[in-house]
Amino acid sequence: MADIFPQSGTEIDVSAALGTGEVSYGRTPIFDFEKGEFKTVDNKVYVGEGLEVLKSWIEKTVRTERFRFPIYSFDYGITLEGLMEKGLPYELLISEIKEQITDALIHDPRITDVGDFGFLRSGSSLEIQFRVHTFDSGTIDMEVKV
After folding, report:
1. Pair type for strands 139-145 and 125-134
2. Which of 53, 109, 113, 121 is the most buried (most CB within 10 A)?
3. Residue 87: which domain range?
4. Which of 29, 27, 33 is nearest to 50 (CA)?
């Protein structure tokens, strides 16, 4: 009988897949938030490495509305829409956004600090800028439009 499962010809090192407990960036498909689709190279989904992986995760976390999607834990994302709908004074709104972003990101072992926030408001959209410090002394300057 023919084998119904495809064969890749590649052995999988299970111990490598389970990890060693050390902090690393890993690898992941990179999403293009401007286009709304995964990045591709030669018609294949592009898999990023290093800081690019963390940057993609950070943007996804900030863009995801907390509690909206049952697939995510209640710790994932921020409640930006809820804050915007409350009609809070601008200074209080900014303070809450800083707190929520920091809280959502700082639990990741790859991140050691979040700060240097900046905000640009244009009509109904908000551009959030901030700096993330990583476990290996790297920095990522983020710019997320919501």
Report:
1. antiparallel
2. 53
3. 25-145
4. 27
**Which long-range contacts link 114-122 to residues 24+ away (Cβ below 8 Å)?**
119/94, 121/90
> Could you tell me how far CA 49 lies from the centroid of its own chain?
14
The CATH number that applies at residue 127 is 3.10.450.40
Structure tokens at 85: 């709908």
pLDDT in the model for residue 33: 87
79 and 67 Cβ atoms separated by less than 8 Å:
yes
In a domain, 110, yes or no: yes
The answer to whether the beta carbons of residues 106 and 99 sit under 8 Å apart is no
In a domain, 9, yes or no: no
Query: Would you call 35 helix, strand, or coil by DSSP?
Result: coil
pTM to 2 decimals? 0.75
Q: Is 90 part of any domain? A: yes
Q: Residue 7 falls within a domain, yes or no?
A: no
Q: What share of the chain is helix, strand, coil (3-state, %, to 5)?
A: 30, 30, 40
Q: Count up the domains in the chain and report the number.
A: 1
Taking only the tens place, the pLDDT of each residue in 49-87 is 989 999 998 999 888 877 677 777 777 777 887 777 777
